[in-house]
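Standup notes
- DV: blocked on the single-chain target, sequence here:
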Amino acid sequence: MNCPGPCARTAARNAAASAAPTLSIAAARRWTRLLALPAVLALAAAGCGRKEAPPPAPRPVVAMPAQADERLPAWTLPGEVQARYSTPLSFRVGGKIVERKVRLGDTVAAGQTVARLDPSDATKNAAAARAQLSAAQHQLEYARQQLDRDRAQARENLIAATQLEQTRNAYASALAQRDQAAQQAALSADQLKYTTLQAEHAGVITAEQADTGQNVEAATPVYQLAWSGDVDALCDVPESVLAGLEIGQRATVTLGPLPGQTFAAVLREIAPAADPQSRTYRAKLTLESPTPEVRLGMTANISFDNRSANGRATYTVPATALFHDGRDPAIWVVKPQEDTLELRRVQVLRYDARTVTLSHGIEAGERVVWQGVHTVSAGEKVRAVPPLHPEDFAS
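- DV (later): unblocked, structure below
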């Protein structure tokens, strides 16, 4: 059958293909690699020309050099003048008050009699105790004489040994009774003496707590005595100021009734616990050189020095710069050479409305992060910039 032209060309190609030599599998693989080599070289050349991605730019943070405070505003707290030592005066025995010799505001000397109880009962008890002591002494003397006689008879074998032992026992019993009676007599004499109340220290009567004719128990306060000598200025310290106070810190005291006079004082005691109602801490300062015009109960204004007792420089930073490291306060510091962040623990001297004052953990000139302290991390590369509105951070 005769095929048209296209059929003839197809048959010719098939014949030529059947006549061409057949390639092995290995040869085919080598041929494929040779064909792919230019593409690989082209990709490699293209890769060599690509640049690496640049490192991220340092994060800008608001940071400023720390400057030592020239002078901080002093803390001024209201207070009052009190004696350093104040004790109640009370009888050591109970009874009826028959006489009071001093009144409120009187000055007393050490050993001065200030009140008396009715001594009738105490006098009778003392007399009875003395009588018992006298009887015990006579009994002891009789027992001693009997012992001497029995010892002499025992040397002559005139009495039995058991009788001598009984005599010795009677003497020992009489001696013990005499000693007991002596102690009872001394106790009764002391109780009679205790019916007279004396001031143990010189001072001023600041309170009357019992009156003439009143029956009082032992240790019931009759007067309140403020000792002469050291004078204190007392004030209540709020929590925000407590961190800035140290024992030994100096202060200046001015008194309302004595205008124009100032007195130096030293902080000697801070209450370990806050008052449950006011939530303040009682502080006691000792006036160094009080004059006779200083009277107990005067109102006072107490201004604490702006530096701690150790004299270290302080640094005031915005409150937004304060961070935390665990439970301790901390700040972020920009290292000078690496421009990386370091978390530094600090000690806060005082807290104010918009600032905090630091006493430890920072040196002059170190750059402190003022804002965004919760968005950065240790070791992060940063770029320090000044605040956009410095007046916002003014103290």
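- Follow-up: The radius of gyration is 50 Å.
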